[in-house]
Every structure is written in structure tokens, then in C-alpha cells.
Amino acid sequence: LAGYGRVGLALHRLILSQRARIPLRVVGIQTLRHGSAFDQRGLPLDPEFGPLVAPIGEFLDRARPEVLVEATTLQPATGEPALEHLLAAFERGRHVVTANLGPVAHAYAVVAHTAQRSGVQFRIGLPLFQAARLPLPGAKVAGFRAVLSPASSLMLDALRAGRTLADGMEAARTLGLAEGDASYYADGWDAALQAAALANVLFDARITPLQVNRRGIAQLTPEKLDDLRTRHKTVALVARGRLTTAGVSLRVRAEVLDVHDPLASTRGASSVLLLDTDLAGTVGSVVDSAAEQTAYALFRELVDIAG
Ligand SMILES: NC(=O)c1ccc[n+]([C@@H]2O[C@H](COP(=O)([O-])OP(=O)(O)OC[C@H]3O[C@@H](n4cnc5c(N)ncnc54)[C@H](OP(=O)(O)O)[C@@H]3O)[C@@H](O)[C@H]2O)c1
Prior knowledge:
The protein is of the alpha/beta class. Helices cover 38% and strands 21% of the residues.
């Protein structure tokens, strides 16, 4: 396990709670400030950490896992050091399941290709990406519409309640859905990162978050949202991706929606994904993406790899 914060810990707790039926073991944990822990018999939830074993290659050589779970802090501008972690695991013939979207948003094609060349599996252990992999035999996804950033949605909820974007950010922080600078969410960067990752996975777009045509929600006010409400309208930060003959088009915008639009149905930590397909029409999912649900998404992939 690389990273032992909210998600890493929730995954470990889940693995331990299921171990009578599903014999997974955590044999190594790497953190930034607490150091590293190892035990081939399986670590406890609250292990004793020794000195940090780094770089990640050394950690992997010592832990000798079958799978690396990448759950370190997201660095949105580069996707590092998670990208380095993934490549080091592939080089050693280890499968990878990631909760960290950085490498998917910045270098999915390289990652997927390297995993394939190394004969190992690369899985994204995130609820939204599991929803994007709906089993639709023969059908092609032509586009998606999605509300991807729970923190941005909570900021809009705050405006709807007559409060400020900063209040919404505080609510998102409390739920563990946001950290760092509020402008990352208000300016649409979080949604752009996730949209780039989705387009890379669904359309092999080879795009980075910087290339997403993006506008955020910073210009909205409680008064504007109140005015929309009187007309049964609302606003959501919507990502739209489409595969066209000219390539992939991708944009993030605050869109005015009918209050009954499925894209207007996010609550708390939820995201909405609508896939436009050629054979199945539009199919959609609402997913919860807090730490516990993310841990379960990682767990699903681990069980699937083991199976
Ligand atoms: N929280 C959620 O609801 C959620 C949902 C979906 C996806 N994710 C993604 O899951 C990942 C983890 O999120 P989180 O909420 O668990 O974060 P977190 O609570 O901040 O924990 C991050 C962990 O990563 C460790 N870390 C940071 N840099 C590292 C490095 N270079 N090498 C090794 N360990 C490093 C930290 O070490 P220290 O303990 O020493 O600080 C900490 O244990 C992120 O990429 C996030 O975007 C989170």
C-alpha cells in the first residue's frame, strides 16, 4: 500500500474485516511522514512504522507484494510521484490498482502500454471509473456528460443555501472530499482532471487537464441561483466529452439545467455519469466517491485480479 491516509486506511480495514472469506494481506505500507512498515504475514491496522524505505522500488523489493495499491496524495499538476510508483511496480512485474487519478489524467496511454508490455494488470479502483466500464458488449461510447467534482457541487449547494463558496469548501474539507486551495475546485480544475482521465480511458484521448476547455463556478452568486430557482432551473459544473471525426472534444462549464435533469441530482459525495452509446442509448450511474466507497472500489479490483 503506497499511502495510508483516509483511503489506504479504509481499504486496510475492509481487507481485515473480510479476511475470513477473502484472504488478502497487506504486506507493506509506505507513507511520507510516518515511514514504512513490512510483514509478510500481514500487517495489523495500526502497524509499527520503521524508517522510510525509499525510493518506491526499494520499498517494493522489500515488501514483495503481488499488487501495489497506489493511494498517495494527488499532485494534480503532474501526477507524480504516483506515476513513478506505477512504473516501478510494472518494472518489477507487479499489478497495480490506483485510487490516485494523477497518472490517469496525465499519462494514461504510457501507463496502460507499460502495464501491458510488462504482462501485468493496471486497474483504476474508483467508483466512477467502474461505472464507466459498464458491460455493454458491442456498444461504443460516443460521449459522456458528467458531474465529477463533489467538492465543486458542495460549493454550489452552499450558494443555493445563501452561503459562500468558502462555506462549501469547508463542508467538502470536513467530508474529506477536498484539500488545499479552494480555487482548485471553484475554477474547475478538479472536474477538468477527472474529465481528462475519463476521456483518456474511454477515448484514448491522450489529453492532460491543462488541455481541457475549462470554466469554473467562481462567478456565480446566491442571487443568480435564487433567480434560476424561481424558473425551476439550477446550475451544475458539467463535464462533456465527445469523440468526433476531428478528435476528442472536452469541456467543463457551469451549465444551467432543469431541476429534474439527472445531472442536477448529485448529493454530498456523489458524482453523476451519463454515457451516450450507439447501441444502448444513454446509460447513467450515480456513484458515491468518499473514502469508504473508494476503498471498496479498490477492494473489488483486488478481488478480481486475485480471482
Ligand atoms: N478521500 C477520498 O474520499 C478519495 C476519493 C477518491 C480518490 N481519492 C484519492 O485517493 C488518494 C488518497 O487520498 P486520501 O484521502 O487517502 O489522502 P490522505 O488522507 O491525504 O493520505 C495520503 C497518504 O499518502 C501518503 N503520501 C503522500 N505522499 C507520499 C509519497 N510520496 N510516498 C508515499 N506516501 C505518500 C501520506 O503520507 P503521510 O501519512 O506520511 O502524510 C498519506 O498516508 C488521493 O490520490 C486521492 O485523490 C480520495
